[in-house]
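README, section 4: Worked example with a bound small molecule

Sections 1 through 3 covered apo chains. Here we extend the same pipeline to holo records, where the ligand is supplied as SMILES alongside the sequence. The molecule in this example is flavin mononucleotide. Nothing else about the input changes; the structure line simply encodes the ligand pose together with the chain.
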Amino acid sequence: MPNLFSPLKIKNIELKNRIVVSPMCQYSSEDGFANDWHLVHLGSRAVGGASLIIFEATAVSPEGRITPDDLGIWKAEHVEGIKRITSFIEAHGTVPGVQLGHAGRKASHRSPWKGGTAITEEEDGWQTVAPSAIPFIESEPKPLELDAEGIQKVIADFKAAAKRSLEAGFKVIELHAAHGYLLHEFYSPLSNQRTDNYGGSFENRIRLLLEVIESVQEVWPVEYPLLVRISATDWTEGGWTGEDSVALANVLKDKGVDLIDCSTGGNVPHAKIPVGPGYQVEFAESIKKETGMPTGAVGMITSPEQAEDIITTGKADLVLLAREFLREPYFPLKAAQELNHDITWPLQYERAKPRR
Ligand SMILES: Cc1cc2nc3c(=O)[nH]c(=O)nc-3n(C[C@H](O)[C@H](O)[C@H](O)COP(=O)(O)O)c2cc1C
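The generated complex, written as structure tokens:
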């Protein structure tokens, strides 16, 4: 059997293979609600054979949305629409996971196809918040530096969102601590210039992430996986580094986090990122090798052979695919065929299954 199709048990949850749908914003919600788009989009990828589908960055508060069109889970009313989708996904043998996020200083922007620019408060945007009053792009409105009360609200919002995630049928939570959003903004020295106990030293900068993890763990069952997506490097001098990520992984391991999903970048606009096939895999590999923490690799993983190689050589425990899954919702079914492995197809599609 190809290693890509070996099951993986994390806590009490069994993934049938190593191929995961990476979280992808759809900018298709109104007031944070899930709708038919999400059902069809995510449902097709369950039919396509992914072992785990991580829903897009799902806002823990209205002010934590990147755009007004983001999916959210900040109120009880959001649960029902999501539950319909998680139930469908699970019925097709795929584990439903959610990425809980707060966009910090990158909130209050237009969706990409509406221009992607900042929406000012006068234009129905909202005041953004961040560790320090430094905007992502100089010309954009300044975020408000979170005070102690604001920080407590963020922690409470993640906790309430985790509780609702359970009600909504999710079996995996991934905390979004990457791509220049709030939790990353706190641990990166490029965006955090605080002088209180949430800024300065490494220990202080990772404090908010740790407090969010602790608050989520108060309501999230121990038998369900808790993952954290990080930006393993800022690709910028004076920023967060691969070594910092290894140090963080050691701390997260002690905290009971189950896997680190290793992305990079996103916290400063001018970073030079050496984009290419599998360009972030090295971070999943070094964190796994140096800490023993299970990892997920993401970023330009597009072929079954490449994915199989990452798992077989022990560079990561999971591969997460984003754009390739937009091109090919049935990637796992096709990958099995290419790797000459027999997997179960949805009964409704059986007649189209290639015979070996
Ligand atoms: C349409 C789209 C939306 C995305 N939204 C998110 C998101 O909500 N959360 C996140 O962590 N990454 C997001 N990403 C990044 C992907 O999860 C992934 O890390 C990145 O695209 C690299 O993987 P790929 O080369 O397989 O596309 C998004 C990417 C795309 C293409």
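What to look for in the output: DSSP finds eleven helices and twelve strands in the chain. The longest helix spans residues 148-167.

Section 5 describes how to batch many such records.
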